[in-house]
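Q: I'm teaching a short session on how sequence maps to structure, and I want students to see two examples side by side rather than one. Could you give me a first protein with its sequence written out and its structure tokens following it? Keep the formatting plain so it prints cleanly on a handout.
A: Of course. Example one:
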Amino acid sequence: MIEPPRIVSADGMTDDEIAALYEYPSMSGPWVRANYVVSVDGAVTTNGSSTGLTSPLDQRVLKLLRDLADVVLVGAATIRIEDYIGVRTSEAGRKRRMDRGLTPVPPLAVVTARADIDPASRLLTNTVVPPIILTTTTASSTAKHNLEAAGAQVIELGEGRIETTALVDALTGLGMTRILCEGGPTLTGQLVADHALDELCVTTAPIMVCGNGYRITNTDKHSSFAMHCKHILFDDNGFQLARWARAM
């Protein structure tokens, strides 16, 4: 019998108390977690970005999820749209990580079949830890060289397309088993379609968004599996943060 989710108010909770709600399970292999914020009607962006959906609690949990992860996995389109910089951790966050045997700051791992990342972008110029670029053997050699020259670690994973197994195996081979995926929908859709996603953390914003925006997963491949809700964290502004894990 599946236990009902815990319903928890974030009011008065410390960061350590919230982090305890999101601890990774004990495991011998990788655990892939995705994190999203969506509108009530399922949109993941407003005017092309997630900025209009987020809240202080959502941002607080985002930072804590990063504190618990070995690596933050992101698709190239999301890197460009959201103008990513490297992950930052606070003094408390670094202690939280080191207490768990993690490196002080997690790297960003960027999935880009064509290696089409600007080496002068903030991803490379405004970071503490150099990013990992997961690309292909068929991507431009010049693009890969320029990214390496800018400090990135470039890893080639197959020809033409990056397969999910190769992606996860590459990160696991680097000792990065706690994988936090921050999108976008195409990357998350691939993980779900290939049954590689173990967990989804989703913030529901009390907002309706019209239009034809993406949902959390964007893929032509049909796939489904059962999930169960472990907890729902809420605040006084109507935001609800649910942690969903695959039903075993």
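Q: Perfect. Now a second example for contrast.
A: Example two:
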Amino acid sequence: MTEHVNSYYAASANPHAPFPTLTESLQCDVCIVGGGYTGLSSALHLVEQGYDVVLLEAARIGFGASGRNGGQVVNSYSRDIDVIEARYGAETARMLGSMMFEGGEIIRERIKRYDIQCDYRPGGMFVALNRKQYLGLMEQKASWERYGNNGLELLDADAVRGEIASQRYTGALLDHNGGHIHPLNLALGEAEAIRSLGGKIFEQSAAVSITHGQPAVVKTAQGQVTARYVIVAGNAYLGTRVEPALARRSMPCGTQGVTTEPPAPDGAAALLPHNYWGEDWSYLLVY
């Protein structure tokens, strides 16, 4: 049995009933492999539209990065829209730019519609450590506003000290359309929404093979799913055997988070008065 790793998020997760292990043969419209954000969001959108969906998770819902990330709702892509535009042209940039801020809106809509208790708080800051980075944030603001983010506010050195108790930063770009969450509770809340709409979720049910065709067949150690379509959303834990073509296009990476002892009652509020997240612009960023 693969359980959630011993983390702050697992220790503070909302109470939830586990999902069964697949031990039978099922048929459905769409079989989804992976119970992280990609798989859960896909399943939730599909069941809302009336599709018969089966989701298979090798461990527990949110076991991987979806349940133990930094918890930040950050707009944009890993390579920003200006890089995309320079490399692939204006038409591609317009297409991707139209979707750039959609993810955060979907998260907020899901939280509201299904009353997901995941400690969502709006707002986040990209902080600058020097004048060069601050000028970069000015350019970033203009770029993002071209693609529809109208919730940006540029903070100078004095203003940023009112938002984070540090003398290190020369300024910041405050994104009011960003935010932060308890990531595991978001995943668990989406899973409960899927369950409430009749979607089937199975934990401890790793896919061991996928046979392509019409229909496709996804096998686990104790069962199988026959489906018209398969969505592979396994990411880092998919392994090399189930879908080798995807495995060749991924690589492991890591990030670290720490928690402190509980501060004094007003300690956290003194550090971050409006409870915004913050991240710097270094190559190896601190957040």
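Q: What should students look for in example two?
A: Point them to this: The mean pLDDT is 93. Also worth mentioning: The longest strand covers residues 171-180.
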